[in-house]
Amino acid sequence: MSEDLNMSMRKFLKQVGVTSQQAIEEAFRKAGGTEGKQFEARVVLTIDGVDLEHVVTGTIKG
Description:
There is one protein chain. The protein starts with a helix and ends with a strand. The protein has one domain. The chain is elongated and about 45 Å long. It is 47% helix and 32% strand. The longest helix has 29 residues. It is an alpha+beta fold.
């Protein structure tokens, strides 16, 4: 794997992590009353041109 590809992936994943956390925090603030509840979460990553669909699931506890 080239160094350029590796750096590009890292930059993209950092952007995904930061913006996703911000979106989740905002959604929880707007929803209110989430303390003590569990929420099932799913992220679907697709990359056109390389036939990738990667699904990550998990639980977020309020």
